[in-house]
Amino acid sequence: MQHLANVSELRGAKAHAAAIEVAGLSHVYAGREGQVPALEDIALTVGAGRFVVIVGPSGCGKTSLLMMMAGLRNQTSGTILCAGRPIDAPDPDRVGVVFQEASLFPWLTALDNIEFPLSIRHAPREERRRRANAMLELVGLQGFGGRYPHELSGGMKQRVSIARGLVQDPPVLLMDEPFAALDEQTRMTMGHELLRIWSQTAKTVVFVTHSLTEAVYLADEVLVMSARPGRIIDRVDITLPRPRTYEMMATDVFGRLRERIWQQIRKAT
Length: 269
Fold this sequence. Notes:
alpha/beta; 4-stranded antiparallel β-sheet
């Protein structure tokens, strides 16, 4: 309980700080038929310690925007600041990324997969093992460190992927539809587990999803994007109290929030 209190205090102290600032961001792809505008004049600020979810129709540029925040893709124009500094290349000290596919190395155990980002940076073995074990415990996989990916369920693989994204202790975690391939029951469980992990850290999370229920359940704020070229057309504050519970999904407030987001997406397509 003391740890959770400390996290809450830290999150409150950082509430007015910006973890990510995007201004005037646009992107144009060069296709066979000429220039294809993908993103247009994106401006957003993600406060430190916040859980922000991005939704929008397929092809609107959600993933492209996330990859630009990660430094994995360059924008045509505009700026992206992370912790007050530009990010134009991967920087695991500032930003961790969890992809839709777990993409674990099949020849490595769960623990070794988590350690991998530290090993390529030549961290001492004892430190790697200590940090990887701490992340394994955080994601609820104690006792499974010696298992190989083929011995893990889909949800367990994604837990390993989340642990790998956290092991370098970045202040920002970007997540690109990490639960999309899971069945509905597992997806709901993983969402609840992600909130538990987030509540025990001071991370800033930016999460992309197609599921409006998932968006409302997880977020402090939902950013709604239009069809291509993607623009932010609405910002929805999620006023549900925390900690979130499954029972909240049946409330009128939850339904109204979800309906507002859905109507915005319908208008924009």
